[in-house]
Amino acid sequence: MYREHTKVIQIGDRKIGGGNPVLIQSMTNTRTEDVEATVRQILALEAAGCEIIRCTVPTQEAAEAIREIKKQIHIPLVADIHFDYKMAIAAMENGADKIRINPGNIGGAEKIKAVVDVAKARKIPIRVGVNSGSLEKELVEKYHGVTAQGLVESALDKVKIIEDLGYDNLVISIKSSDVMMCVKAHELLAEQTNYPLHVGITEAGTVYSGNIKSAVGLGIILYEGIGDTIRVSLTGDPLEEIKSAKRILKTLNLRKGGVEVVSCPTCGRTKIDLIGLANQVETMVQEFPLDIKVAVMGCVVNGPGEAKEADIGIAGGKGEGLLIKKGEIVKKVPEDQLLEVLREELSNWK
Ligand code: SF4
User: Fold this and answer.
1) For residues 136 and 147, what is the distance between their CA atoms, to the nearest angstrom?
2) Measured from the CA of 302, which atom of ligand 1 is nearest?
3) Over the chain, what is the mean pLDDT?
4) How far apart are the first and last CA of the chain?
5) Residue 218 Cα, ligand 1 centroid: separation in angstroms?
6) Is 0.70 topped by the overall pTM?
7) Chain centroid to CA 157: how far?
8) Cα torsion at 147, 153, 155, 156 (round to 10°)?
9) What is the DSSP letter of 192?
């Protein structure tokens, strides 16, 4: 298991690597300069379960906003920098807990050294990020295109630049929107480094296709024991990223806790609005910090059996449903009261 053996890196008050739990990251899509909007979004993401947040820092004003934002949030903040090394330095001086740079695009050895010197003095970790979209020309030529090998070589070259400056407080990320290239690159990288890896499928797409690509890509990579932090990248509300990341970790048994809803696909036997009910139940259960399974089943054929497997469940009938708790049928409930009765049961769950 690679993640048991990665280097432990401290980001604000959280530790990653060395077998610590895989943490969920997201990135704000507000203007970082707009402190109020950015804080509002980060607090909502925190409440949903985000554990590390990244904000872009493209201007001096954004770097200064970091100081104010940090006062109002409770999770570590990563400053994302491209092109201008001065922004990386300003972000650190204003309290960023980690910076994410691509040493290939911040302009030469002197500038990289200036950034590393500040990181070193302040013990701030650097995430070295490479992306398939910006792979160096020489590596594209050497490997006849953008390849997993090229991505890994690019990342390790960048890491070496920083190591040669005497700094190893590092995290690596390599991203590609090609899921299987991303998987291959992580397999190769995990063999060659023990720095913690931040894993994500970049430019994965909309909520629908991004979720599927991320679930497949992150699922394989995490299952192989690789990855210390993750981000599900979606073209959508960042809150969706957190929901999906939590679901991926829970499905892989890398997270405990939270109510799991199982529901049947419905068929010709279904006599209640089960699709509507299952969706409402899935939203409703998020209020409850319970570690239980709730079954929402359409009929009495498989329903009672599945519902008995769960801690609590419903098996639909005609305009009504059976409420089943810890294997026992408790009562019949009219269809329009099923959601409320379930909510009531979870509120009083012992
Ligand atoms: S539980 Fe009943 S309604 Fe749901 S798919 Fe199975 S047979 Fe159909």
Assistant:
1) 11
2) 1
3) 94
4) 36
5) 31
6) yes
7) 26
8) 160
9) H
